[in-house]
Amino acid sequence: MKSWSDIQIAYQVAKFGTLSKAAESLGVHHSTVLRHIDSIEEHLACKLFHRHSRGYTPTEAGEILFQDAAKVEERLDRMVSKINGLDQQLTGPLVLTSVSTLSPLIMPVIEVFSKAHPGVDISFQADSRIFKLEYGEAHISIRPGAQPQDPDYVVQKLLYTESALYASESYLRKYGKLQSLEDITGHRFLNFCQNMNNIPSIKWLNEMVPKEQISFSASDYHILMDAAENGLGIVAMDCRIAELKTDLQLLLPAPSAWRSTIWLVTHRDVHFSPKVQAFTALIKQCLK
């Protein structure tokens, strides 16, 4: 059998009755239409049209072919309409990616969004690696650190964050308070297992605190916070999140050099889809 495009072209001739009108509807030259008709008739070894001065009318064989072609075209049109409408609905999956550090800030937004749009299936992928939005690994990325530079990304400033040093009462009773960032002798600190120098406070830890004073390391921010609450050492953490941790005390005012930007990132191919627009608008409103 010839391709669907050949059948579709012949069907357009049957629908409009002339080569010129069929060619106009398809956006091609009438000679192209005639060539396809000759080709499919040769392949099927039968005539699909009666040719006369007023145009083309289907033969009996043509009627059989074009009745089924009309049904196929209708099904294809419905399928295309469904596909085109997928991104216009507030339904289906919505994948967010961020670092676990920001989970306490993002979760209240997810709760509000889920109540407003129950048809959207949200998943939150927390990972220190940068997800590739161009490969469809996530719809929305919420990232600290340097501004993403990919030309296909839509990058917006979501908020500025400040970090500072915190410790539990039990730690302070044993080791005392810090007087300054230079006053670290005799203190114990908590750090990430992996290099996280894109975060200014962690960069300070890696550059200024001797390794022998790193008493505990973990791969997850929440583990570090739990360790700090249990008196294992001093933790550098986001001030907004620290406000939620009543067992931890601020040791020094947040250094201005530790201020960083949280970026809201989407790929231009999905940026204007309603569910992406709805979530990004909500998180900007909630975290402003």
Task: From the structure above, extract its key features.
42% helix, D-Maltodextrin-Binding Protein, domain 2, alpha/beta
Quick structural overview:
With 288 residues, the chain is an alpha/beta fold.
Description:
- The mean pLDDT is 87.
- The chain has helices at residues 4-16, 19-26, 30-44, 60-86, 103-116, 169-175, 200-208, 221-229, 239-242, 274-287; strands spanning 49-52, 55-58, 92-98, 120-126, 140-144, 153-161, 163-168, 189-192, 214-218, 235-238, 248-250, 260-267.
- 27% of the residues are buried.
- It contains ten helices and twelve strands.
- The strands form four sheets. Strands 4-3-5-12-6 form a five-stranded mixed sheet, with helices on one face.
- The chain is an alpha/beta fold.
- The longest helix is centred in the first third of the chain and has 27 residues, at 60-86.
- The radius of gyration is 32 Å and the shape is rod-shaped.
- Helix content is 42%, strand content 23%.
